[in-house]
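Protein 1 of 2
SEQ + STRUCT:
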Amino acid sequence: MTFLLLIGVCLLTCLGQVAQKLAVESWRGRELKLATKLFSPWLLLAIASLGGGLLLWLLVLQRLEVSLAYPMLSLNFVLVTLLAQYLFREEIGARHWFGIALIVGGVALLGMQS
């Protein structure tokens, strides 16, 4: 159950990050009022996703030590990088991929501890 909660936190916060990017992309080159930006669908999705992720995170912290749980959120780096490459056509260099591999290895090592 705790593992599923952690996955949920990762997915919701990842969705929140991507939705933030989509929000600012939808504003690019347009003169918009602040209220229009604040109530844009992508920004509302980002806020809802990040809020949901926060609530799940609180459940995770009830079940795991923060020193173990928090590094698991590093998987967001992996997910956001993959989505950035796929959705936004961002170029990801070899050094970046090497860093991602180190993160995945570190999370795997921590996961074996629990």
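Protein 2 of 2
SEQ + STRUCT:
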Amino acid sequence: MNDFNRTFGSADARYADTSVNVGLRTFMLGVYQKLALGIALAGGLAFLVGSNMVPALTQLVLFSPLRLVIQFAPIVLILGSAFLMKRPSPLATGIVYWTIVSLLGLSLSIWVYMSLGGVGAETRTGRSISPTLYTMAKAFLLTSSAFGALSLFGYMTKTNLKPVGVFAVFALWGLVGVSLLSFLFPPSGFLEVAIMVGVLAVSGILIAFDTQNLKEGYFQNEGDTRSLAVMTNFGALGFFISFYNIFTILMSMLSSND
């Protein structure tokens, strides 16, 4: 996934005068608007399924083998796009974005189901969690605040975030790999907490890095409508995944009874 690899532009663009650049402002607003629409869609799907408004749909998504497809399909789509999209198009990247958003929205429905039904659960390590609508609202507000602050930092800073950003990308995939491998070994509460803290830290770094990368990429591709459209889709996707990661981890932490 060429553009999702966060190689949009050159570092020199960090020093461009962005205070009055209408084109850059319009481009960044387009990314944030697509992100907001993605969050709204994911939230709507999560509520539709989690509220049990359509029992058959809730049963299919949460309590049938399809839940495994929903859980792992986003990773497959991201990896598949990285290898198959040699010259990404706005249409193809748009389909990838909305598909992943929808799948992750369906994954979030379990939190709505537990919150509305007063259902508790235990993690694989035995940690007890009891989510509520209050903890969900609190997690969303904390995630939104953190996202706004980190993205603003990435937009304003003159420091080159590429070295730490590239490290964060590899670290995130490493954490995903460790999470999957952990199912082959006995549960470890320490490892569970370490993974959650690691994903929180890496996701925060990636929000700032992706913001700076998008800004630099705009100046490199200014006037290229096709490239900017692709960047908008991949930029919103990167933001959405980081937002999703932070939100779900905060939900797990805030819902803990231990």
